[in-house]
Amino acid sequence: MFGKLKKGLSKTRGGVFGKINRILTAKRKIDDDLLDELEELLITADVGVSATLDMIENIRQKVRKEKYETTEELNRLIIEAVREELTFDEPPIPDSKPYVILMIGVNGTGKTTSTAKLAHYYKQQGKDVLLAAADTFRAAAIDQLATWGERLGVRVIRHQAHSDPAAVVFDACASAVASHADVLIIDTAGRLHNKVNLMNELEKINRVISRQIPDAPHEVILVLDAGNGQNAVQQAREFIKVAKVNALFLSKLDGTAKGGVVLGIKKELGIPVRYIGVGEQVDDMERFDAGAFVEGLFEKE
Ligand code: GDP
Ligand code: MG
To answer: Which atom of ligand 1 lies at the shortest distance from residue 277's CA?
Structure first.
């Protein structure tokens, strides 16, 4: 598990975080210059200004109070500050059956792939999973999910291309209830350029779900491409305006040096990163763990 995360973070670690590691190793003393340099580097690393300022202030106060001297100590202090910044109290997962997960996000961010990853994740836990191909905009999108379903041995509810996504969701909910499925994951289209349409579509989907399964959807997961760095945060802000997002799936961490974006997201959006994607295969996914993530970032090569 940890090896995969470490590999997925190698580009990020090799970029600005590598520089941070080198500075920490080279400097002998913790002074204002070092903290200024660190602050600049964290901002360059797509961490985001306000999360960076928070962490630096946290470090500054600890240094003042407890007189950290060696860079080894500072290193630990930084890891701790970053971990504190990232730790999030997760609400307990409701014990509902079927447990309904709605996947949303801009096209190309990795929604369908991440849907397959989650299907695999739950299936491995012995859950009976059902998928809904509610991105009916392109035939290829439906086929893509159907192919994953075949590979994983998971049923996929699908209609023809250009049919009403809400109708697919209706059938999927009915089937999930009738077949006593444990988990229903709904893949959607994300045409953000037409915000009113997107909002209407999501509202309609939500209505259809909750009419058949009260309290559902239990999770609305916004998929963000880590490679978009701070732009992904901006994208998320737009989505939060039209949907009740309660968790983030940050995809494609393996392909980018902008993994620092994870550190600022909680501060900027108040929504936890719950999953990270580190490759194109179904097992290239991890449930986000602040401790492992931070260690993966700062670990020496
Ligand atoms: P969607 O349009 O949001 O459904 O996006 P897709 O799931 O079709 O993914 C778009 C592309 O990103 C595909 O080529 C995927 O294989 C790729 N992709 C998705 N997640 C990851 C990831 O975590 N790492 C990498 N390297 N590629 C990914
Ligand atoms: Mg898709």
So the answer is: 23
> From CA 155, how far away is CA 146, in angstroms rounded?
8
Question: Quick check: CB of 279 below 6 Å from ligand 1?
Answer: yes
Please indicate whether residue 280, judged by its CB atom, sits closer than 6 Å to ligand 1: yes
* The pair of three-digit structure tokens given for residue 54, joined into one six-digit string: 């928070």
Residues 6+ apart with CB under 8 A from 273: 247, 248, 249, 250, 262, 265, 266, 288
Residue-level pLDDT at 164: 94
E strand or H helix that includes residue 57: helix 49-66
Asked if residue 279 lies in contact with residue 254, where contact means CB atoms within 8 angstroms, the answer is: yes
Q: Which residue has the tokens 């059902």?
A: 130
Walking along the chain (301 residues) 10 residues at a time, the average pLDDT comes out as: 78 84 76 88 87 89 79 80 77 81 95 98 95 94 97 98 96 98 94 76 94 95 94 90 91 91 86 93 92 81 55
Q: Is 164 exposed, middle or buried (0-12, 13-18, 19+ CB in 10 A)?
A: middle
Asked whether 115 lines ligand 1 (CB < 6 A), one says: no
Q: What is the DSSP letter of 243?
A: S
Instruction: Using alpha carbons only, give the angle 273, 109, 220 rounded to the nearest 5 degrees.
Output: 45
Query: Are the beta carbons of 235 and 108 closer than 8 angstroms?
Result: no
Q: What spacing in Å lies between the alpha carbon of 143 and ligand 2's midpoint?
A: 10
pLDDT at 28: 66
